[in-house]
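Honest question from a wet-lab person: if I give you the sequences of every part of a complex, can you actually get the arrangement of the whole thing, not just the pieces? Trying it with mine:
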Amino acid sequence: MAMTTTAGRAHADPHHIGLVIEHPGPASKRIVTAYGFWVFLLSDIVMFSCFFAAYAVLAGQTAGGPKGSEIFEPRNVAIETVCLLLSSFTCGMASIAADVRNRFWFYLGMAVTCGLGVVFLIIEFREFADLVSRGYGPSRSAFLTAFFSLVGCHGLHVSAGVLWLLTMVAQVFAKGFRADILRRMMCFALFWHALDIIWVAVFSVVYLLGSGA
Amino acid sequence: MPAVRTVEAMMLGKLDWSAIPFDQPIPLIAGAVVLVGILGVLIWVVVKGHLPYLWHEWITSVDHKRIGVMYILLASVMLLRGGSDAIMMRIQQAVAFQSQGYLPPEHYNQIFSAHGTIMIFFVAMPFVIGLMNLIVPLQLGVRDVAFPTLNSVGFWLTATGALLVNLSLVIGEFARTGWLAFPPLSELSYSPGVGVDYYAWSLQISGIGTLVAGINLVTTVLKLRTKGMNYLRMPMFCWTTLASNLLIVAAFPILTATLAMLLLDRYLGFHFFTNEAGGNVMMFMNLIWAWGHPEVYILVLPAFGIFSEVVSTFSGKALFGYRSMVLATMAICVISFMVWLHHFFTMGAGPDVNAIFGIASMIIAIPTGVKIYNWLFTMYGGRIRFETPMLWSIGFMVTFIIGGLTGVLVAVPPADFMLHNSMFLVAHFHNVIIGGVLFGAFAGFEYWFPKAFGFRLDDRWGKLAFWFTFLGFYVTFVPLYVVGMLGMTRRMQHYDVAAWRPWMLVAAAGMAVLTIGVICQIMQLVVSIRNREALRDRTGDPWDGRSLEWATSSPPPVFNFAFNPDVRGEDAYWDMKARAQQQSLEHGGPEYQDIEMPRNSPTGFVCAFFATIMGFALIWHIWWMVILGGIGAFATFVVFAWRDHDEYVIPAEEVAAIDRVNLEERRSLVSMAGAV
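Yes, you can. This is the full assembly:
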């Protein structure tokens, strides 16, 4: 155990850069949780980007089946988009209500968010069911495969979001605005907004570009 | 009768007695041996009354050190499984000259697929993630990772994946498609059995575990550092951990998406990668390698970090060119995402595309070269101690340079057209993964073992293990380079070319030497555990270390540090020791305070339990069980979210009592050194 030598590093600033801003230490739980969740959202967006890429590759492969412009219904998509964008607003309201610990506005905000989410899901489900009944299911062509997967993946995320939302409300109902529950609420809000961002991309890449083609 | 069959199909899906390979003695006997082994251990644990201890101290533990140890244990066990596969393949290729050998093709194909899958996903990954888990919070001077319970979930999901892969040995079959399950071979029409499903679901489940670990470690490094631990004061291992986990976060979702697409093709008749209806097989290649190439660096970057720590410690010098090392690490992190196409130059993307990816692949050798020179210059003029971890590091430098050079060679597209899918390639990637990742894992294992368990590993057996593995590696894999040049392609169950035969015999002999190396490693563990009192590390600093993990006792208390260390520069602990010698290591700091720690939780284990049920049910199309598993997993999360007390307090007196013992040892050490 040679401890006799102090060779090597004797002082802190070998390059004499000076003016090192000292790191203040571990961040607060709130910061750590939100940061970690952001990282998760980024990874989720990477996953979506694969489905977007697959869609871009396969969009032209209709194999004799319908093209996008033949099956998309802009009116439905517009309603879906309005639902989601509005729900982002009401989710924001619920977050603010949680921050100021106002139960009434929190429940109201979450209820409207949930309602809008469910309406979105119903419209999407009907769109899918209608396509399948017409023989344009995901097995019909590579284009429909990619379409169902990308839009369906977003739909699954919204479904999971609704489940999370209900759990969140139940938690606040049972335990109030505890610090850990508020952190979860923050993550939920981030998740919901991220789904909106992804929907904007779905709307543009799939429906907008597809309707024109 | 048909009604009975329908009920059976509903209850059991595709599962029936034909799933058990009664006609194939090898997997059956292997499975029986493993089963007897597991049952034996379980019975021993229960009879000896260790079950409560295991449950409270390990299975439900959210302590990063415990989880790290469990990751490494999982990796070690799976290394034996993957190694057995390797031995079987080497023997097959040694005997299957102008004959069928002893392994029928469908079995041989399962073995090489399982070997690759296991070695990458269930040996290399858990080994490096285990080491990162164990050491990074200690090096950063903090009490735990960012999300301790999630950390446990991540580990147990990885274990679930490993369990499913091993289950395929006796119930059903494993994929025969190679370790990346390329379509259209892996599509339902060509692989109708459950092998590919075992492969895909176990990777999906363990992939979630890996993603969780990645998010956790990125957040830990970026947001949980002790006071004064600026980015450019972090030990190199923390930097490589950051880079590696950034890659996990960016790359693993690609694997998840790709396998999800393959599964949709297989389960619901989608057309992502089929030959029919416009599916695109090459899209699979692009997607899987957009994950697969960064994966290589996910594995090797932490190993680079380990070598940096080891070389600097055992040379008694600060790491040469620390900042260039940081830069090189981050450069590799970025460039690793720009080279994936070199895995299929033969796809026919055209000379321009191939040239760009070829050049990018060669460029990545530059930061790697920077690292090699930095390690060499760290050793230059140092007082080198040839302890076992240092031997692994030097062995790595020699071996990895050769692997890197053959890598640059196959990065040249015209050369790759000759060598694509040949044994040369097999030799190349074993050269970098064994020489880089495995040597790194072993170096880290030897180096940090005393930290984890409080005693050193036996030196003699360790050195024997190194020399046998090192020599065995060359005897096994140099012949593979040669037969690759002679035109032998990979994955051959038998062959008729006489010129290859002698080399295959040499490679089999090399495998025997490698096996002796593994036995030495096991012996080392046995001997060291027996002699643990003589090998005890009382000070917590057995190697005269430089970073903060050595500033606490071995094994560290559950809270790691009684006080959050205050870092003033690079090589934080080295600095502290230097200063302490003048100040006789008194801790002038504040009084001991209560410490809050996260409570243990069975969430991870219960989650994995349901994930196992769900995975198994999905593989065998038992839909009611899938739903049951899903509900169970969701319920587990809700129960976890519902608990009211997620932390407990260790009172200041207890902290003081634990800390003083170690402080005394350290003081006596410093005063001894001061007297000299």
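Two things worth pointing out. Confidence is low (pLDDT under 50) at residues 1-10 of chain A. Chain A touches chain B through 60 residues (CB under 8 Å).
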